[in-house]
Design brief:
236 residues; 2 domains
């Protein structure tokens, strides 16, 4: 082999070696960028200004979005949302309301032996004793939006959930762990800019109540009541 050919071969081998070394670096850089983008997306989804969500069901969502979504957090399988505007609501002991109502309550339900029955919302992996999701027209107009989600859960689930909420959102903004007066309820409240989560332990049964609430809803509901009183009972 001539000196010229040997030099060319060595140069080629050097290029291949450099290329081989560069590939893992390029892959690592791409992976790091992807991880960074994913972290940014996760941060955006967990924005402190966004309303809290119960297992993907976010406060502030419209009733149409809620009903169209496949996000059903209840057992048994096949449960669907039933609202007071549905004819099936009467079979579940719920009030019947028109689509023009200012406030509407919904629950998950299922067909059981040719009849409708209430389902159980699943909270922290356990069936809740009761649940209700409430919608209202903000300022008495526009679409019905989810402003409250309430659940009644057993004591053990409530204790586990308290730890899970603290792990996810940090220490509660308000905590009354050792209530001094008899009958007082131990209560834990987490808040962000748009909403709150309240966990209470009931003194008698020691069951827990879990409430997701959109901030400002008290004022909206007072406006709804005033409009309902002005427009007649059918509008409620």
């Amino acid at each position: 082999m001539t000196l010229t050919r040997m030099a060319s071969t060595w140069a080629l081998l050097g290029v291949v070696a450099l290329s081989t070394q560069a590939q893992p670096v390029a892959r690592e850089t791409k992976a790091a960028n992807a991880a960074s983008n994913s972290a940014s997306a996760n941060f955006a989804r967990r924005s402190p200004d966004a309303p809290f969500a119960f297992r993907g069901v976010a406060l502030g969502t419209t009733i149409d979005e809620f009903r169209a979504s496949s996000t059903v957090r209840a057992t048994p399988l096949g449960s669907v949302p039933i609202c007071e505007t549905d004819v099936q609501a009467g079979a579940l002991g719920m009030r019947l309301k028109s689509r023009d109502s200012l406030s509407v309550a919904c629950r998950w339900a299922h067909r059981d032996d040719e009849r409708w029955a209430l389902s159980q919302a699943v909270v922290d992996g356990a069936p809740a004793l009761e649940h209700v999701l409430r919608f209202a027209r903000i300022d008495g107009q526009g679409a019905l939006r989810l402003y409250e989600m309430s659940f009644v859960i057993d004591e053990l689930t409530a204790e586990d959930l308290r730890d899970a909420l603290e792990e996810r959102y940090g220490p509660p903004h308000l905590a009354t762990r050792n209530a001094a007066s008899p009958g007082a309820m131990p209560m834990y409240v987490w808040e962000n800019a748009a909403s709150s989560i309240t966990l209470c332990f009931l003194p008698g049964s020691r069951n827990g109540t879990l409430t997701y609430l959109l901030k400002g809803s008290d004022a909206w509901m007072k406006a709804v009541v005033r409009q309902w009183q002005a427009s007649g009972t059918d509008a409620g």
